[in-house]
Amino acid sequence: MSTTATATVTPTAASAPGKVLLAGGYLVLDPAYTGLVFALSARIHCVSSVNPDGQADTITVRSPQFTKEQEWVYRISGTESDAGTAVEQLSGSPNPFIQKAILYILTYLSITTLHSPLKITILADNDYYSQPPTTTRHPRFNNLPTTIRDANKTGLGSSAALTTSFTGCLFHTLSSSSSNVTETIHNLAQAAHCSAQGKVGSGFDVAAAVWGSCIYRRFPAATLSSILESGTPGFAKRLKSVVDARWEYEARKTTVPRGFRVVMGDVRGGSATPGMVKTVLRWREENGEKAKERWDAIHALNMELIGWFEETRRVGEHMGEEEYVKAAREYVKDRDSLAGGMEEIFRCFEKVAETLGKIREQMRGMGEEAGAGIEPPAQTELLDKHKEEVKSVLGGVVPGAGGHDAVALVLLDVDEEGRVEEEVKRVMSGHSCTMLETREEMEGIREEEVKGYEGYL
Protein backbone atom coordinates (compact mmCIF):
# COMPACT_ATOMS: atom_id res chain seq x y z
CA MET A 1 0.00 0.00 0.00
CA SER A 2 1.41 3.36 -0.98
CA THR A 3 1.82 6.10 1.57
CA THR A 4 -0.23 9.14 0.64
CA ALA A 5 -0.19 12.23 2.85
CA THR A 6 -3.29 14.39 2.80
CA ALA A 7 -2.42 17.66 1.10
CA THR A 8 -5.19 19.60 2.77
CA VAL A 9 -7.78 19.08 5.47
CA THR A 10 -11.20 20.49 4.69
CA PRO A 11 -13.28 21.21 7.82
CA THR A 12 -16.58 19.46 7.18
CA ALA A 13 -19.90 18.86 8.91
CA ALA A 14 -22.30 16.04 8.08
CA SER A 15 -25.45 14.63 9.62
CA ALA A 16 -27.37 11.39 9.14
CA PRO A 17 -30.88 10.47 10.29
CA GLY A 18 -32.23 7.73 12.51
CA LYS A 19 -34.74 5.17 11.28
CA VAL A 20 -37.92 3.28 11.98
CA LEU A 21 -38.62 0.00 10.21
CA LEU A 22 -42.37 0.38 9.93
CA ALA A 23 -42.90 -2.85 8.00
CA GLY A 24 -40.51 -5.71 7.31
CA GLY A 25 -39.18 -6.65 10.74
CA TYR A 26 -37.21 -9.94 10.45
CA LEU A 27 -38.17 -10.26 6.77
CA VAL A 28 -35.52 -7.69 5.74
CA LEU A 29 -32.88 -10.24 6.74
CA ASP A 30 -33.79 -12.21 3.61
CA PRO A 31 -33.23 -10.64 0.15
CA ALA A 32 -36.42 -12.34 -1.04
CA TYR A 33 -38.42 -9.79 0.99
CA THR A 34 -38.55 -6.01 1.34
CA GLY A 35 -39.06 -3.56 4.17
CA LEU A 36 -40.56 -0.09 4.51
CA VAL A 37 -38.13 2.08 6.44
CA PHE A 38 -38.62 5.74 7.26
CA ALA A 39 -35.73 8.00 8.14
CA LEU A 40 -36.31 10.17 11.20
CA SER A 41 -35.57 13.83 11.79
CA ALA A 42 -33.38 12.98 14.81
CA ARG A 43 -29.84 13.18 13.44
CA ILE A 44 -26.30 12.44 14.53
CA HIS A 45 -23.87 15.17 13.52
CA CYS A 46 -20.11 14.98 12.96
CA VAL A 47 -17.90 18.06 12.58
CA SER A 48 -14.21 17.92 11.63
CA SER A 49 -11.40 20.41 12.14
CA VAL A 50 -7.63 20.58 12.41
CA ASN A 51 -6.51 19.70 15.93
CA PRO A 52 -3.64 22.09 16.82
CA ASP A 53 -2.99 20.23 20.09
CA GLY A 54 -2.91 16.74 18.58
CA GLN A 55 0.05 14.47 18.01
CA ALA A 56 1.21 13.67 14.48
CA ASP A 57 -1.01 11.27 12.53
CA THR A 58 -3.75 11.20 15.16
CA ILE A 59 -7.51 11.56 14.96
CA THR A 60 -9.16 12.74 18.17
CA VAL A 61 -12.86 11.96 18.42
CA ARG A 62 -14.95 13.88 20.95
CA SER A 63 -18.51 13.30 22.15
CA PRO A 64 -18.98 16.15 24.63
CA GLN A 65 -22.56 15.24 25.59
CA PHE A 66 -21.41 12.23 27.62
CA THR A 67 -19.79 13.80 30.65
CA LYS A 68 -18.15 10.62 32.03
CA GLU A 69 -16.20 9.82 28.87
CA GLN A 70 -15.79 12.31 26.08
CA GLU A 71 -12.68 11.51 24.07
CA TRP A 72 -11.05 8.77 22.01
CA VAL A 73 -7.68 9.15 20.29
CA TYR A 74 -6.43 7.02 17.38
CA ARG A 75 -3.05 6.93 15.63
CA ILE A 76 -2.81 5.81 12.01
CA SER A 77 0.12 4.19 10.23
CA GLY A 78 0.97 2.03 7.23
CA THR A 79 1.18 -1.76 7.08
CA GLU A 80 2.96 -4.39 5.02
CA SER A 81 1.44 -6.75 2.42
CA ASP A 82 -1.27 -4.31 1.28
CA ALA A 83 -3.08 -4.91 4.58
CA GLY A 84 -4.54 -1.42 4.74
CA THR A 85 -4.18 1.43 7.21
CA ALA A 86 -3.46 0.45 10.81
CA VAL A 87 -5.55 2.27 13.42
CA GLU A 88 -4.23 2.12 16.98
CA GLN A 89 -6.38 3.36 19.85
CA LEU A 90 -4.35 5.53 22.25
CA SER A 91 -7.05 6.52 24.75
CA GLY A 92 -10.69 5.90 25.64
CA SER A 93 -12.71 2.71 25.99
CA PRO A 94 -13.25 0.54 22.89
CA ASN A 95 -15.52 2.19 20.32
CA PRO A 96 -15.63 -0.24 17.40
CA PHE A 97 -17.95 1.81 15.19
CA ILE A 98 -15.55 4.76 15.20
CA GLN A 99 -12.38 2.70 14.94
CA LYS A 100 -13.67 0.59 12.06
CA ALA A 101 -14.99 3.64 10.20
CA ILE A 102 -11.57 5.31 10.41
CA LEU A 103 -9.83 2.13 9.28
CA TYR A 104 -12.12 1.46 6.30
CA ILE A 105 -12.19 5.07 5.07
CA LEU A 106 -8.43 5.63 5.29
CA THR A 107 -7.67 2.26 3.75
CA TYR A 108 -10.05 3.00 0.87
CA LEU A 109 -8.44 6.43 0.32
CA SER A 110 -4.91 4.94 0.66
CA ILE A 111 -4.07 7.32 3.50
CA THR A 112 -1.47 6.29 6.09
CA THR A 113 -0.25 9.71 7.23
CA LEU A 114 -2.02 12.99 7.92
CA HIS A 115 -0.87 16.47 6.95
CA SER A 116 -2.36 17.75 10.22
CA PRO A 117 -3.81 16.05 13.30
CA LEU A 118 -7.60 15.89 13.10
CA LYS A 119 -10.45 16.36 15.54
CA ILE A 120 -13.98 15.13 14.91
CA THR A 121 -16.80 16.12 17.26
CA ILE A 122 -19.92 13.95 17.45
CA LEU A 123 -23.24 15.48 18.52
CA ALA A 124 -26.49 13.54 18.82
CA ASP A 125 -29.97 15.03 18.76
CA ASN A 126 -31.66 14.41 22.10
CA ASP A 127 -34.19 11.83 20.90
CA TYR A 128 -31.51 9.15 20.53
CA TYR A 129 -31.26 8.78 24.31
CA SER A 130 -33.85 8.76 27.09
CA GLN A 131 -33.69 12.22 28.64
CA PRO A 132 -34.17 13.08 32.33
CA PRO A 133 -37.52 14.71 33.17
CA THR A 134 -37.52 18.50 33.08
CA THR A 135 -40.03 21.32 33.33
CA THR A 136 -38.12 23.31 30.73
CA ARG A 137 -36.94 22.47 27.24
CA HIS A 138 -33.61 20.62 26.99
CA PRO A 139 -30.80 22.38 25.10
CA ARG A 140 -30.22 21.27 21.51
CA PHE A 141 -27.52 18.72 22.40
CA ASN A 142 -28.26 17.90 26.03
CA ASN A 143 -25.47 16.59 28.27
CA LEU A 144 -25.96 13.22 29.97
CA PRO A 145 -24.11 12.20 33.18
CA THR A 146 -23.05 8.82 31.82
CA THR A 147 -20.81 7.08 29.30
CA ILE A 148 -22.00 6.49 25.76
CA ARG A 149 -22.06 2.76 26.53
CA ASP A 150 -24.39 3.15 29.52
CA ALA A 151 -26.80 5.71 28.04
CA ASN A 152 -30.38 4.49 27.60
CA LYS A 153 -31.03 4.36 23.85
CA THR A 154 -34.47 4.89 22.36
CA GLY A 155 -34.05 2.48 19.46
CA LEU A 156 -33.70 4.98 16.61
CA GLY A 157 -30.60 3.39 15.06
CA SER A 158 -27.84 5.39 16.70
CA SER A 159 -24.96 3.11 15.63
CA ALA A 160 -25.98 3.25 11.95
CA ALA A 161 -26.56 7.01 12.01
CA LEU A 162 -23.24 7.52 13.81
CA THR A 163 -21.27 5.29 11.42
CA THR A 164 -22.86 6.94 8.38
CA SER A 165 -22.45 10.52 9.58
CA PHE A 166 -18.85 9.85 10.66
CA THR A 167 -18.06 8.15 7.34
CA GLY A 168 -19.43 11.06 5.33
CA CYS A 169 -17.66 13.65 7.46
CA LEU A 170 -14.23 11.97 7.45
CA PHE A 171 -14.44 11.05 3.75
CA HIS A 172 -15.15 14.64 2.68
CA THR A 173 -12.55 15.99 5.13
CA LEU A 174 -9.78 13.95 3.51
CA SER A 175 -10.95 13.43 -0.08
CA SER A 176 -10.78 16.03 -2.82
CA SER A 177 -13.27 14.12 -4.99
CA SER A 178 -15.85 16.45 -6.50
CA SER A 179 -18.03 13.69 -7.96
CA ASN A 180 -21.12 12.23 -6.32
CA VAL A 181 -19.73 9.78 -3.78
CA THR A 182 -22.95 8.90 -1.93
CA GLU A 183 -22.86 5.30 -3.17
CA THR A 184 -19.24 5.01 -2.00
CA ILE A 185 -20.17 6.39 1.42
CA HIS A 186 -23.08 3.91 1.60
CA ASN A 187 -20.84 0.95 0.82
CA LEU A 188 -18.09 2.07 3.21
CA ALA A 189 -20.57 2.72 6.03
CA GLN A 190 -22.21 -0.69 5.52
CA ALA A 191 -18.80 -2.40 5.58
CA ALA A 192 -17.58 -0.56 8.69
CA HIS A 193 -20.90 -1.05 10.52
CA CYS A 194 -20.98 -4.79 9.81
CA SER A 195 -17.32 -5.21 10.77
CA ALA A 196 -17.91 -3.36 14.06
CA GLN A 197 -20.86 -5.63 14.84
CA GLY A 198 -18.94 -8.75 13.88
CA LYS A 199 -21.67 -9.89 11.47
CA VAL A 200 -23.40 -8.91 8.25
CA GLY A 201 -26.83 -7.54 9.16
CA SER A 202 -29.62 -6.56 6.79
CA GLY A 203 -28.23 -3.04 6.34
CA PHE A 204 -31.63 -1.31 6.33
CA ASP A 205 -30.56 1.12 9.08
CA VAL A 206 -27.45 2.30 7.23
CA ALA A 207 -29.43 2.49 3.97
CA ALA A 208 -31.96 4.81 5.63
CA ALA A 209 -29.13 6.89 7.12
CA VAL A 210 -27.63 7.33 3.64
CA TRP A 211 -30.64 7.47 1.31
CA GLY A 212 -33.45 8.55 3.63
CA SER A 213 -36.91 6.95 3.66
CA CYS A 214 -36.99 4.00 1.28
CA ILE A 215 -38.41 0.65 0.31
CA TYR A 216 -35.45 -1.58 1.06
CA ARG A 217 -34.24 -4.97 -0.16
CA ARG A 218 -30.96 -6.11 1.31
CA PHE A 219 -27.70 -7.03 -0.41
CA PRO A 220 -26.45 -10.65 -0.26
CA ALA A 221 -24.44 -11.27 2.91
CA ALA A 222 -21.60 -12.62 0.76
CA THR A 223 -21.04 -9.09 -0.58
CA LEU A 224 -19.00 -8.22 2.51
CA SER A 225 -17.60 -11.61 3.48
CA SER A 226 -14.12 -10.91 2.07
CA ILE A 227 -13.57 -7.63 3.96
CA LEU A 228 -14.91 -8.21 7.47
CA GLU A 229 -11.43 -9.14 8.68
CA SER A 230 -9.31 -6.02 8.33
CA GLY A 231 -5.54 -5.91 8.54
CA THR A 232 -4.97 -9.15 6.61
CA PRO A 233 -2.72 -9.38 3.52
CA GLY A 234 -4.43 -7.93 0.45
CA PHE A 235 -7.19 -6.29 2.52
CA ALA A 236 -6.73 -2.87 0.89
CA LYS A 237 -7.17 -4.24 -2.63
CA ARG A 238 -10.18 -6.33 -1.62
CA LEU A 239 -11.83 -3.35 0.12
CA LYS A 240 -11.37 -1.11 -2.91
CA SER A 241 -12.83 -3.78 -5.18
CA VAL A 242 -15.89 -4.42 -2.97
CA VAL A 243 -16.68 -0.75 -2.31
CA ASP A 244 -16.37 0.21 -5.98
CA ALA A 245 -18.49 -2.72 -7.20
CA ARG A 246 -22.17 -2.43 -8.04
CA TRP A 247 -24.08 -3.98 -5.13
CA GLU A 248 -27.28 -5.96 -5.54
CA TYR A 249 -29.72 -4.15 -3.28
CA GLU A 250 -32.70 -1.83 -3.52
CA ALA A 251 -33.31 1.44 -1.68
CA ARG A 252 -36.21 3.00 -3.56
CA LYS A 253 -37.04 6.46 -2.26
CA THR A 254 -40.45 6.87 -0.68
CA THR A 255 -42.40 9.36 1.40
CA VAL A 256 -45.48 9.44 3.60
CA PRO A 257 -48.69 10.81 2.08
CA ARG A 258 -49.55 14.44 2.67
CA GLY A 259 -50.89 15.09 6.16
CA PHE A 260 -49.53 11.80 7.51
CA ARG A 261 -47.06 11.75 10.38
CA VAL A 262 -44.98 9.02 11.98
CA VAL A 263 -44.71 9.45 15.76
CA MET A 264 -42.23 7.55 17.93
CA GLY A 265 -42.66 6.65 21.59
CA ASP A 266 -39.78 5.79 23.94
CA VAL A 267 -40.93 2.92 26.15
CA ARG A 268 -37.72 3.00 28.25
CA GLY A 269 -37.64 -0.77 28.21
CA GLY A 270 -35.07 -2.14 25.82
CA SER A 271 -34.93 -5.58 24.24
CA ALA A 272 -32.06 -7.92 23.46
CA THR A 273 -32.59 -7.66 19.69
CA PRO A 274 -29.89 -10.21 18.67
CA GLY A 275 -31.43 -12.79 21.03
CA MET A 276 -34.92 -12.24 19.62
CA VAL A 277 -33.64 -12.46 16.05
CA LYS A 278 -31.92 -15.78 16.80
CA THR A 279 -35.13 -17.11 18.36
CA VAL A 280 -37.25 -16.17 15.33
CA LEU A 281 -34.72 -17.45 12.79
CA ARG A 282 -34.43 -20.75 14.66
CA TRP A 283 -38.24 -21.05 14.59
CA ARG A 284 -38.20 -20.31 10.86
CA GLU A 285 -35.59 -22.98 10.21
CA GLU A 286 -37.43 -25.59 12.28
CA ASN A 287 -40.87 -24.89 10.82
CA GLY A 288 -40.11 -24.86 7.10
CA GLU A 289 -43.29 -24.49 5.06
CA LYS A 290 -45.42 -23.21 7.95
CA ALA A 291 -42.92 -20.43 8.65
CA LYS A 292 -42.70 -19.60 4.94
CA GLU A 293 -46.48 -19.22 4.78
CA ARG A 294 -46.34 -16.81 7.73
CA TRP A 295 -43.51 -14.76 6.18
CA ASP A 296 -45.23 -14.69 2.78
CA ALA A 297 -48.46 -13.50 4.42
CA ILE A 298 -46.61 -10.73 6.28
CA HIS A 299 -44.76 -9.73 3.11
CA ALA A 300 -48.02 -9.52 1.15
CA LEU A 301 -49.44 -7.19 3.81
CA ASN A 302 -46.26 -5.10 3.86
CA MET A 303 -46.49 -4.65 0.09
CA GLU A 304 -50.18 -3.83 0.49
CA LEU A 305 -49.30 -1.09 2.99
CA ILE A 306 -46.70 0.33 0.61
CA GLY A 307 -49.31 0.22 -2.15
CA TRP A 308 -51.93 2.05 -0.08
CA PHE A 309 -49.41 4.72 0.91
CA GLU A 310 -48.69 5.24 -2.80
CA GLU A 311 -52.40 5.26 -3.68
CA THR A 312 -53.11 7.78 -0.92
CA ARG A 313 -50.37 10.02 -2.33
CA ARG A 314 -51.78 9.64 -5.84
CA VAL A 315 -55.35 10.45 -4.82
CA GLY A 316 -54.16 13.30 -2.61
CA GLU A 317 -52.16 14.87 -5.44
CA HIS A 318 -55.33 15.13 -7.52
CA MET A 319 -57.10 17.01 -4.74
CA GLY A 320 -56.45 20.61 -3.83
CA GLU A 321 -54.68 21.27 -0.53
CA GLU A 322 -57.81 22.68 1.08
CA GLU A 323 -60.00 19.84 -0.17
CA TYR A 324 -57.54 17.18 1.03
CA VAL A 325 -57.16 18.66 4.52
CA LYS A 326 -60.94 19.02 4.79
CA ALA A 327 -61.36 15.35 3.87
CA ALA A 328 -58.73 14.23 6.39
CA ARG A 329 -60.39 16.26 9.15
CA GLU A 330 -63.78 14.86 8.22
CA TYR A 331 -62.38 11.32 8.38
CA VAL A 332 -60.86 11.93 11.82
CA LYS A 333 -64.15 13.37 13.06
CA ASP A 334 -66.36 10.59 11.71
CA ARG A 335 -64.79 7.58 10.01
CA ASP A 336 -68.19 6.24 8.98
CA SER A 337 -69.08 9.45 7.17
CA LEU A 338 -69.23 9.36 3.39
CA ALA A 339 -69.07 13.06 2.64
CA GLY A 340 -69.68 13.86 -1.00
CA GLY A 341 -66.64 13.50 -3.25
CA MET A 342 -64.44 12.16 -0.45
CA GLU A 343 -65.15 8.43 -0.84
CA GLU A 344 -61.90 7.65 -2.67
CA ILE A 345 -59.57 9.30 -0.14
CA PHE A 346 -61.62 7.92 2.77
CA ARG A 347 -61.09 4.44 1.36
CA CYS A 348 -57.33 5.06 1.23
CA PHE A 349 -57.24 6.16 4.88
CA GLU A 350 -59.33 3.15 5.88
CA LYS A 351 -57.13 0.70 3.97
CA VAL A 352 -53.95 2.08 5.55
CA ALA A 353 -55.52 1.64 8.99
CA GLU A 354 -56.82 -1.83 8.18
CA THR A 355 -53.50 -3.04 6.77
CA LEU A 356 -51.51 -1.75 9.75
CA GLY A 357 -53.84 -3.74 11.99
CA LYS A 358 -53.39 -6.91 9.94
CA ILE A 359 -49.59 -6.55 10.00
CA ARG A 360 -49.68 -6.24 13.78
CA GLU A 361 -51.82 -9.36 14.03
CA GLN A 362 -49.47 -11.40 11.84
CA MET A 363 -46.31 -10.19 13.62
CA ARG A 364 -47.85 -10.90 17.01
CA GLY A 365 -48.81 -14.38 15.81
CA MET A 366 -45.27 -15.06 14.61
CA GLY A 367 -43.90 -13.95 17.96
CA GLU A 368 -46.24 -16.29 19.82
CA GLU A 369 -45.30 -19.24 17.60
CA ALA A 370 -41.58 -18.53 17.88
CA GLY A 371 -41.60 -17.75 21.61
CA ALA A 372 -40.32 -14.20 21.03
CA GLY A 373 -42.01 -11.13 22.51
CA ILE A 374 -42.38 -9.24 19.23
CA GLU A 375 -45.44 -7.43 20.54
CA PRO A 376 -45.52 -7.87 24.34
CA PRO A 377 -48.90 -7.45 26.10
CA ALA A 378 -47.91 -4.00 27.42
CA GLN A 379 -47.24 -2.81 23.87
CA THR A 380 -50.51 -4.31 22.66
CA GLU A 381 -52.38 -2.37 25.33
CA LEU A 382 -50.52 0.85 24.47
CA LEU A 383 -51.18 0.59 20.73
CA ASP A 384 -54.82 -0.41 21.21
CA LYS A 385 -55.35 2.51 23.58
CA HIS A 386 -54.11 4.98 20.98
CA LYS A 387 -56.41 3.52 18.34
CA GLU A 388 -59.38 3.75 20.72
CA GLU A 389 -58.76 7.17 22.24
CA VAL A 390 -56.92 9.23 19.61
CA LYS A 391 -59.07 9.52 16.51
CA SER A 392 -56.19 10.82 14.40
CA VAL A 393 -54.23 7.58 14.87
CA LEU A 394 -54.64 5.22 11.91
CA GLY A 395 -52.57 2.51 13.54
CA GLY A 396 -49.26 1.63 15.06
CA VAL A 397 -46.61 -1.07 15.31
CA VAL A 398 -43.80 -2.20 17.53
CA PRO A 399 -41.15 -1.45 14.89
CA GLY A 400 -38.17 -3.47 13.72
CA ALA A 401 -37.58 -6.61 15.75
CA GLY A 402 -40.28 -5.60 18.23
CA GLY A 403 -40.01 -5.94 21.99
CA HIS A 404 -39.87 -3.17 24.55
CA ASP A 405 -37.74 -0.58 22.70
CA ALA A 406 -40.29 1.72 21.12
CA VAL A 407 -43.66 2.12 19.45
CA ALA A 408 -44.42 3.83 16.16
CA LEU A 409 -47.75 5.45 15.33
CA VAL A 410 -49.08 6.52 11.94
CA LEU A 411 -51.53 9.38 12.25
CA LEU A 412 -53.28 12.12 10.35
CA ASP A 413 -51.75 15.37 11.57
CA VAL A 414 -54.43 17.76 10.35
CA ASP A 415 -56.01 19.03 13.56
CA GLU A 416 -56.30 22.80 13.21
CA GLU A 417 -56.03 23.32 16.97
CA GLY A 418 -52.91 21.16 17.32
CA ARG A 419 -54.43 18.84 19.91
CA VAL A 420 -53.13 15.59 18.42
CA GLU A 421 -49.73 15.77 20.11
CA GLU A 422 -51.31 16.42 23.48
CA GLU A 423 -53.67 13.47 23.08
CA VAL A 424 -50.81 11.15 22.11
CA LYS A 425 -48.66 12.39 25.00
CA ARG A 426 -51.55 11.81 27.42
CA VAL A 427 -52.04 8.19 26.36
CA MET A 428 -48.31 7.48 26.31
CA SER A 429 -47.71 8.97 29.76
CA GLY A 430 -50.24 6.53 31.20
CA HIS A 431 -48.11 3.63 29.94
CA SER A 432 -44.59 4.73 31.00
CA CYS A 433 -43.94 5.93 27.46
CA THR A 434 -42.60 9.27 26.26
CA MET A 435 -43.44 10.81 22.91
CA LEU A 436 -40.27 11.78 21.05
CA GLU A 437 -40.02 15.01 19.07
CA THR A 438 -38.63 13.24 16.01
CA ARG A 439 -40.82 12.58 13.00
CA GLU A 440 -40.47 11.08 9.54
CA GLU A 441 -37.64 12.52 7.44
CA MET A 442 -37.30 11.93 3.72
CA GLU A 443 -33.64 13.00 3.39
CA GLY A 444 -30.62 10.88 4.24
CA ILE A 445 -27.05 11.98 4.91
CA ARG A 446 -26.25 15.58 4.07
CA GLU A 447 -23.47 18.11 4.42
CA GLU A 448 -24.09 20.84 6.98
CA GLU A 449 -22.62 24.28 7.63
CA VAL A 450 -19.71 24.01 10.07
CA LYS A 451 -20.56 27.39 11.58
CA GLY A 452 -23.96 26.01 12.62
CA TYR A 453 -22.23 24.11 15.45
CA GLU A 454 -20.39 27.01 17.04
CA GLY A 455 -20.59 26.77 20.81
CA TYR A 456 -20.77 22.96 20.78
CA LEU A 457 -17.26 22.11 19.53
How much of the residues is beta strand, in percent?
A: 15-25%
What's the CATH class of the largest domain, please? Alpha Beta
Number of strands: 14
Q: What is the helix content? A: 25-40%
Biggest sheet statistics: 10 strands, mixed
Q: Based on helices, strands and strand pairing, what is the structural class?
A: alpha+beta
Please name the CATH topology of the largest domain. Ribosomal Protein S5, domain 2
Taken together, the total number of domains comes to 2
User: Helix and strand string, N-terminal first?
Assistant: EEEEEHEHHHEHEEHHHHHEEHEEE
The Cα radius of gyration reads 23 Å
Short description:
It catalyses: (R)-5-phosphomevalonate + ATP = (R)-5-diphosphomevalonate + ADP. This protein is an alpha+beta fold and 457 residues long. 38% of the residues lie in helices and 19% in strands.
Describe the protein in words.
It is a single chain. By secondary structure, this protein is of the alpha+beta class. The protein has two domains: 13-253 and 447-453, Ribosomal Protein S5, domain 2 (2-Layer Sandwich); 260-441, 2-Layer Sandwich (Alpha-Beta Plaits). Helix content is 38%, strand content 19%. It contains eleven helices and 14 strands. Strands 1, 2, 3, 4, 5, 6, 7, 8, 13 and 14 form a ten-stranded mixed β-sheet that branches. A four-stranded antiparallel β-sheet has the order 10-11-9-12. The longest helix has 30 residues, at 288-317. The radius of gyration is 23 Å and the shape is globular. It starts with 12 loop residues before the first strand and ends in a 9-residue tail after the last strand.
